[in-house]
Amino acid sequence: MTKSTTNSDSWGPTDGPFLGLTPPERTSSVAPFALAKAVYWQEPCARSFEEDLDWHLKTGYVVSRPEFFAMARPVDKNAAASLIVNPGISFSKPDCWHIWLVAGDMMMALDALPFPLPFISFERNNKLKVYEYRRFLRRCEALCQSNPVL
Asked: HEC string of the chain?
């Protein structure tokens, strides 16, 4: 079982929400939707891409644009990690965006979130990471400015 903690360690261009893609893969002409779907071929997943997409259409948000593809849902950051990472669970008083999957332009994906919440979470190596949203946004902006490939 994963443990939910507020994370203060650093992450770089191949950590966190960047799906472990190397810079050439992130700048290729492959559509973000195809890159997102490819994640399910690259690593073991509990469900298929189509099943997770269906769950997020029901309980979360899905945005697909030429610049990015994203699946996310509002969660309670203090809930058990097993509930946060279960796309079939909805929360009545969310305070955190759980980013299930992003491919493409991360800053545009963050801008597309439908309403603000104070925290953001995602899994990295099957461990739940939780950050204050503003801190996470500053790190993304700094990474994008220092490496325009992201």
From this structure: CCCCEECCCCCCCCCHHHCCCCHHHHCCCCCHHHHHHHHHHHCCCCCCHHHHHHHHHHHCEEEECCCEEEEEEEECCCCCHHHHCCCCCCCCCCCEEEEEEEEECHHHHHHCCCCCCCEEEEEECCEEEEEEHHHHHHHHHHHHHHCCCC
Q: How many domains does the chain have?
A: 1
Cβ–Cβ contacts within 10 Å for residue 9, how many? 6
Structure tokens at 121: 């979470």
CA distance 131 to 145: 20
CB-based contact 91:85 (threshold 8 Å):
no
Range of the domain at 75: 17-146
pLDDT at residue 72 tops 90:
yes
pLDDT digit string, tens, across residues 61-71: 999 999 999 99
Provide mean pLDDT across the span 17-22.
45
Q: Taking 60 as the threshold, does the pLDDT of residue 51 lie above it?
A: yes
- With respect to residue 9, please indicate whether it lies within any of the assigned structural domains: no
pTM above 0.70, yes or no: yes
